[in-house]
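Sample 3 of the quickstart, ligand HDD:
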Amino acid sequence: MDEHDKDKSLEPFREDSEGRKLTTNQGVRIKENHHSLKAGPRGPTLMEDFIFREKMTHFDHERIPERVVHARGSGAHGYFQVYESMAEYTRARFLQDPSVKTPVFVRFSTVVGSRGSADTVRDVRGFATKFFTEEGNYDLVGNNIPIFFIQDAIKFPDLVHAIKPEPHHEIPQASAAHDTFWDFASLLPEITHMLMWVLSDRALPRSYRMMEGFGVNTFRFVNAQGKSRFVKFHWKPLLGVHSLVWDEVQKLAGKDPDYNRRDLWEAIEMGDFPEYELGVQMLEEDEEFRFDFDILDATKIWPEEDVPVKIIGKMVLNRNPDNFFAETEQVAFHPGHVVPGIDFSNDPLLQGRLFSYLDTQLIRIGPNFAELPINRPVAPVHNNQRDGHMRQTINKGRTSYEPNSLRGGYPQQSSEAEGGYESYAEKIDARKVRARSESFDDHFSQATLFWNSQSEAEKKHLVSACHFELGKVEDMEVRKRIVALFNQVDGDFARKVAAGIGVEPPSESGGTGVTKSSPAISMENTVKNTVKSRRVAILASDGYDHGQLTAMKGALKEAGAHVKIVSQFLGPIKSWDNQQVQVDKTYLTTSSIMFDAVYIPGGEPSVDALKTQGDAVHFINEAFKHCKAIAASGEAVELLAATQIRGVDLAAQDAMVLSDRGVVTTRKPGQIGELAKAFIDAVAKHRHWERDLKEQVPA
Ligand code: HDD
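Result:
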């Protein structure tokens, strides 16, 4: 199948109006689309105007209910390929043959905000993947955080009600920073571990292309011999896991509320295809009770150091949707969409999810949601389900029941050998109880593990996130209860939190006694050797040094970064030696928060002008405060000296290229090549948290 045919078989109803005539929904050609039918040019519109009424009525019905959670999403198409056959572990056919490319559609999302809310809020991100396999659709409906808030799905409506805007005034939008969420949290010790993750920078992803994905719940792999293993799924982004900083995300929410959506869209348009490796953690049946936590408890990770992640394949996202509504909005995921070889565990959160998703698709889209182009399997669908709202299929024949003899018994069941889905025959011998297993009782050890695993910078960010979130909580008792909860995690952590929110520090320093850490948890240990797809701003004005600018731009592009020239006005700017470059963005249409790094070339007139432009100086100060790499060459080193950059010895950077906490400079134009190398290294590190005195810089 070539690429074109593959697209067609996936979405037979993709429509392209190019070169076509405008028609009504009945196919009648329209002669006049700008004026309704009236009794005279100044008279009333006539009821008989079927063209107007059809158009307007359709418009009035354009929305379907938004998702209760994960309402704001962004989608992309791509494919998945397994590296080597997984037949030893699962009979899932799409995990057998490395030459097979399985089409996928991925939807990334925030959880709490409504459809039009900002991308860069503090929140969990959804990472849901639909694999269109030849055995039917498989949905891996995950998040960018490996655990969840609650252990049993029956609490999900309470969790969502508590975190959503408060019901009396519908405030605040897309934020947990209000009394009802923290009230609920303070009464639910099982939430503690998840709070640590959500308060960390993981909840502020730099890009959907730079975050991990996790299936969270425990599933099963079952092989052709019927042998089962417990499995957890992981997506690992090839670009590493990187985050924004709090000040930045808040500003982005105003200046570019589509920041993550735009990043994904533009990356795919530019050919920087997002790539993720699929990993699995597997446990044998007899290892079920090997750990001091329960492997069915969704508030626990399986530390990667104890249960290694086996990398089994790669997903590439290489095509943007054609139509947001038809694809990203109408796609319907369900953890219960599994294929033979993938099965469920008794994780009580997963068990509840298996009910909820199908139910929500029925109310959101209707009983025939699986027939929509984006949800339609590439595997053939035949059954006796009939009718219902918006049925797309014209089912032929007299029989819609089974068994039947009038149609030879078709459609017919399949044996396991023919690919019929066989549920894993787990033995269960139990009493019906409304209870939680005692093995789910430890709510704090892994929260301590998380705290222990964070770098100093990450710990600092976590504490200030608490100061923000709890600082917004008006009820003092709630704040006190959260400090008491955190004191069970770590005494030092609780004291630091208390100090910022007007709560007495705990009289006794608590903690769990866990001293272990898990390096895989810290973003400090992620990929930091590439600038691929990173965005670098070059600030310049008339009289800039063309040689320096083009040398740096060339080096960055060569390394895979994207460069934009930012100046006061659009149009060309002229260098001192009469060359010119086009300005891409102005200080009005962009901002340092939309870039990963900034470079200022020399050229005395340009640098003198920048010194007098508050926006240019602010651009650099803000980039410094947000710990981004900064480079300057020639006279531009003087410009840095005129900014509020603190704790970096610019005077020492006189003669040669020096990198001081991610600020890279040279006064010697001859060293631009070395400067570019040092700058690229500094950008690849993502952020320079070690920067001193950045808090003293206003932003
Ligand atoms: Fe959920 C949507 C992920 C627990 C009920 N969930 C939804 C989406 C993602 C997740 C990524 C958006 C899918 C899309 O883009 O369309 N949810 C998770 C993860 C969970 C989790 C990783 C913990 C392991 N969810 C969870 C529970 C329940 C739900 C416990 C209810 C019992 N989730 C839903 C839902 C949604 C949903 C209400 C809203 C829209 C939708 O399903 O299609 O049914």
